[in-house]
Each structure stands twice: as structure tokens, then as C-alpha cells.
């Protein structure tokens, strides 16, 4: 984990509520891995105290940049959406555990729900670079929340919307079941980030179909470095609770007690 200043290189809307921020990531800092996140100190000009966590959604070693996709939600993200090229941010990064390597001879199936898309785009980018041909299922409430972003053209993608305004009409899990029913039977492994009901439904589906399933949990955080216990979730382990910030945010879905 490193603490360093970074410069905003680009910051632009990619759909109705989401923005993409491109930041300088100097080469002397450890390369982030898919699934890892960073925290941003609330910029001067906001009254917020706690650092805010965001997943890395892309990394380019050649350009020394990362991207973060964020939803304009509360005080800090509203402020972030107004930041300009050249503005400075204070980062702690990279944080948390990364997704494990995808199992050889299994197709990596990536499920992204809503703003959980960031880490899945990064994983899709990394798997494509290894020629692992991921399948990406991207679910949103409606077409206005599907971003215009190059990765969706670069990997095989199925879009699902709850209201059917774009792509498959139904949830991401409905789209997955439909794909598995109509597609060729293949060995696959799931990687997912999104709302808890989506992750918990996927965990059940993975159990029923005997597939490995890795989930990224976005829990409200305090310190984000393992000190405050503000981010714990119940797990099937004698310890009973795990800190999402340091033991996660990536978990085997069978580890978690889904409530
Ligand atoms: C590991 C991790 C990765 C994350 N990655 C991303 C990302 O890539 N893009 C992104 O937009 N957001 C991400 N989040 C959520 C992000 O941290 C919050 O949206 C952000 O802190 C909101 O700050 P704010 O000051 O704008 O809103 P606040 O005023 O703090 O909150 C606004 C609303 O958002 C809710 N909220 C705040 N934090 C969370 C959270 N962690 N999960 C769910 N709801 C929350 C609050 O309950 C409130 O209703 C991530 C969170 C975690 C823990
Ligand atoms: S946020 Fe403090 S321990 Fe995880």
C-alpha cells in the first residue's frame, strides 16, 4: 500500500449517472491488479472526513494511468464529477486482494451489476490481454445506465436491463441462465461485482451448477486498512467475521454467510 498524490488527466460522463476518471499512476508505485481498490481523501471543498473507496477499472503501465468509474452519489462523488484535468487527488493504493487467476480450460464469465462494473472491466481487460476470452454480462436498471466505453466492444458482452430497454430483458442472472441454456455447454468459472442480491443469487446458482464463483463485495468502509472493523461480513469460519478491506474485497462465494 502506498500513499501518493495523483493528477486528474481526464474526467467525463460515460452514461447518465456514471463518470470515468483517468488518473496518473507513476511507475514507482505497485501496479494495481483486477479486484483491488484505492481510497481517495475527500478533496478540500467537501466537508466529508472519511476517505472514499473505489475499484480500479483499468490500468495502463505504458501510459502510467489508471481509470476509476464512479457514480455521482453523495458529497464526495458529486465533487469528483466537477474536477478538471490537472487537479490533484490524494490516494492510498493499491488496497485489498485481487481476483485469483482464472482456472485453465474454464471460460471466465464476468458478471457486473450497476456500478459494480469497474472491477469487472479491469478483469476483462487483463483476461483479454492473456487471450482468455472472457464473457462479460453487464446488467443495469435501464439503457441510460449502460456506459459508452471501449471495453464493451473489445470483449464478448451480453447486456441485460431490468426494463428491457437494451439487450436482454431481465436481470444479469436471468441473462446468465438464458446463455447457459441456449449456448454450447462449456466449463466456466464466475467472477462478479454488483449489488448483494445479485451476488447472493449468483452464489446459489454457482452452488447448484457446481461452478467456482468469486465475488467482489462493496461494503461501506471506515479506515479501509483493517483497523476499525467497520466493514466486516459474516463468513463460514470459526472467526465468523472477515474484514472486506483487507481479507477481501474478493471472496470465494462459498465463504460468505449470505443473509
Ligand atoms: C471496495 C469498494 C469499491 C468501490 N468501488 C466503487 C466504484 O468503483 N465506483 C463507485 O461509484 N463506487 C464504488 N464504491 C462505493 C463508493 O465508495 C461510494 O459510492 C462513495 O464512498 C460515496 O461517497 P459520497 O461521499 O459521494 O457519498 P456518501 O454521501 O458517503 O453516500 C451517498 C450514498 O451512497 C451510499 N454508500 C456509500 N458508500 C457505499 C458503499 N460502499 N456501498 C454502497 N453504498 C454506499 C450511502 O449509504 C449513501 O446512501 C466502492 C466501495 C467499496 C467498499
Ligand atoms: S474499513 Fe476499517 S477494518 Fe475495514
Structural topology:
Elements: E1 2-13, E2 18-24, E3 37-40, E4 52-55, E5 58-60, E6 65-71, H1 75-80, E7 88-95, E8 107-113, H2 117-129, E9 135-140, H3 151-154, E10 156-161, E11 168-169, H4 172-182, E12 188-193, H5 196-208, E13 213-216, E14 232-234, E15 241-243, H6 244-247, E16 250-252
Parallel strand pairs: 8-9, 8-12, 9-10, 10-11, 12-13
Antiparallel strand pairs: 1-2, 1-7, 2-6, 3-4, 3-7, 5-6, 13-16, 14-15
The site of FE2/S2 (inorganic) cluster (FES) has 12 residues, from loops.
Notable features of this structure?
Rossmann fold, globular, seven-stranded mixed sheet, seven-stranded antiparallel sheet, alpha/beta, single chain, 259 residues, Elongation Factor Tu (Ef-tu), domain 3, binds FE2/S2 (inorganic) cluster
Describe the structure.
The chain is α/β, with parallel strands linked by helices and 259 residues long. It has two domains: 2-95, Elongation Factor Tu (Ef-tu), domain 3; 107-218, Rossmann fold (3-Layer(aba) Sandwich), CATH 3.40.50.80. The protein has six helices and 16 strands. It has helices spanning 75-80, 117-129, 151-154, 172-182, 196-208, 244-247; strands at 2-13, 18-24, 37-40, 52-55, 58-60, 65-71, 88-95, 107-113, 135-140, 156-161, 168-169, 188-193, 213-216, 232-234, 241-243, 250-252. A seven-stranded antiparallel beta sheet has the order 4-3-7-1-2-6-5. The radius of gyration is 18 Å and the shape is globular. The mean pLDDT is 96. The chain binds flavin-adenine dinucleotide and FE2/S2 (inorganic) cluster (FES). Residues 221-224, 226-231, 243, 245 line the site of FE2/S2 (inorganic) cluster.
Amino acid at each position: 500500500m502506498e500513499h501518493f498524490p495523483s493528477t486528474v488527466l481526464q474526467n467525463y460522463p460515460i452514461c447518465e449517472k456514471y463518470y470515468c476518471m483517468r488518473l496518473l499512476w507513476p511507475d514507482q508505485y505497485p501496479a494495481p491488479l483486477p479486484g483491488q481498490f484505492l481510497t481517495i481523501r475527500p478533496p478540500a471543498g467537501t466537508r466529508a472526513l472519511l476517505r472514499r473507496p473505489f475499484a480500479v477499472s483499468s490500468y495502463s503501465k505504458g501510459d502510467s494511468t489508471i481509470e476509476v468509474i464512479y457514480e455521482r452519489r453523495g458529497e464526495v462523488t458529486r465533487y469528483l464529477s466537477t474536477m478538471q484535468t490537472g487537479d490533484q487527488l490524494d490516494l492510498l493504493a493499491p488496497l485489498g486482494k485481487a481476483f485469483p487467476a482464472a482456472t485453465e480450460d474454464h471460460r471466465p464469465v464476468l458478471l457486473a451489476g450497476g456500478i459494480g462494473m469497474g472491477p469487472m472491466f479491469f478483469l476483462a481487460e487483463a483476461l483479454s490481454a492473456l487471450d482468455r476470452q472472457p464473457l462479460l454480462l453487464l446488467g443495469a436498471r435501464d439503457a441510460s445506465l449502460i456506459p459508452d466505453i471501449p471495453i464493451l466492444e473489445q470483449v464478448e458482452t451480453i447486456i441485460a436491463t431490468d426494463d428491457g430497454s437494451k439487450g436482454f430483458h431481465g436481470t444479469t442472472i436471468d441473462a446468465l441462465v438464458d446463455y447457459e441454456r441456449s449456448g454450447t455447454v462449456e466449463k466456466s468459472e464466475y467472477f462478479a461485482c454488483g449489488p448483494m442480491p445479485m451476488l447472493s443469487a449468483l452464489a446459489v446458482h454457482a452452488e447448484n451448477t457446481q461452478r467456482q464463483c468469486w465475488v467482489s463485495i462493496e461494503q461501506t468502509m471506515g479506515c479501509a486498512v483493517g483497523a476499525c472493523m467497520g466493514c466486516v461480513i459474516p463468513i463460514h469460519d470459526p472467526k465468523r467475521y472477515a474484514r472486506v478491506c483487507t481479507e477481501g474485497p474478493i471472496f470465494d462465494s462459498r465463504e460468505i454467510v449470505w443473509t
